[in-house]
Amino acid sequence: MMRNWKASVECTAFTADQFPPPEIPEVAVAGRSNVGKSTLINNLLGARLAHVGATPGKTRSVNFFLVERDGPPFRLVDLPGYGYASRSKAERNTWSRLIESYVAQRKNLWLVLHLVDFRHGLLENDASLQEWLDNVGFPMFVVFTKGDKIAKGKHRGTRDQYIRDGLKSVDVPIVTSAEKGTGIQDLRVFIESFLDRRD
Ligand SMILES: Nc1nc2c(ncn2[C@@H]2O[C@H](COP(=O)(O)OP(=O)(O)O)[C@@H](O)[C@H]2O)c(=O)[nH]1
Ligand SMILES: [Mg+2]
C-alpha cells in the first residue's frame, strides 16, 4: 500500500534565519555528499522535488518538504551533504555549521535519518556525526542506500556486521535501493509509526 502522502516544496534555506516556523515535526535526512539523500527523498515522496546532483556536493541549502498525510503533517528536511573532499575547507565549514545550527536549535526536529552507503558502512565523517548526535542525545535511524550494489544474499550479513561494528540506530537499519524501489515502503511505515508513537 502506498501511504497517502502529498508532498510539496515548502522552503529552501541558505541561512538559519530562513528556516520555516518550527510548528510542524521534522524528520531530517543527513549523510555524505552523493550517498543518495535527494534520490531517497524523491522516492519516499513519490515526486521529483529534490534535486539529484550530477555533481557531488551540490546541495548547499537546507530544503524543507511538507508532507500531508492521513495523520498530522510533518516535514522531510534535506540537509547539505558532508565529506566531499574537493570543496574548499571554508565552504565545507559553512555547510557543517548550517547542519549543526539546524540540529542544535530545531525544537521540532524529531528524528534524523542517517543515510549510509551500504557498500561502505560508516566512514570517518559518518562516525563523527553519530558521535555528535549521540552526545546531544538525539535519536537517529540508519538507512542504507544503494542496496542494489550488494548481492541480495549478502544483505543480512552485511547489515549485521555494520551493527556489530557499532553503528547507532534507534531500530534495525533498513536497506534501500532507489534503483529497485526496495525498502522505500518499509521506511515510510517506519517514519509514520515513529511520528505517531511520539505524537
Ligand atoms: N545504484 C544506485 N544509485 C543510487 C541510489 N541512490 C542514489 N543513487 C545515485 O547516487 C548519485 C547521488 O545521488 P543524490 O541523491 O544526488 O545524493 P545526495 O548528494 O546525497 O543528495 C546519483 O547519481 C544517484 O542516481 C541507489 O539506491 N542505487
Ligand atoms: Mg542532494
**Tally of individual helices:** 5
Distance between the termini: 23 Å
Integer tally of domains: 1
Average pLDDT reading: 89
Main beta-sheet strand count, sense and barrel state: 7 strands, mixed
CATH fold label: Rossmann fold
Could you characterize what this model shows?
- 32% of the residues lie in helices and 22% in strands.
- The two termini are 23 Å apart.
- The protein is built from five helices and seven strands, in the order ββαββαβαβαβα.
- It has one domain: P-loop containing nucleotide triphosphate hydrolases (Rossmann fold).
- The protein has helices spanning 37-45, 89-105, 124-135, 155-164, 184-198; strands at residues 6-13, 26-31, 62-68, 74-78, 109-117, 140-145, 174-175.
Give a brief description.
With about 200 residues, the chain is an alpha/beta fold. The protein is built from five helices and seven strands. The longest helix has 17 residues, at about 90-105.
Question: What's the structural blueprint in terms of helices and strands?
Answer:
Blueprint: E1 6-13, E2 26-31, H1 37-45, E3 62-68, E4 74-78, H2 89-105, E5 109-117, H3 124-135, E6 140-145, H4 155-164, E7 174-175, H5 184-198
Parallel strand pairs: 2-4, 2-5, 5-6, 6-7
Antiparallel strand pairs: 1-3, 3-4
Residues 37-38, 53, 59 line the site of magnesium ion.
Highlighted features:
binds guanosine-5'-diphosphate, 22% strand, Rossmann fold, seven-stranded mixed beta sheet, alpha/beta, 199 residues, binds magnesium ion, single chain, 5 helices
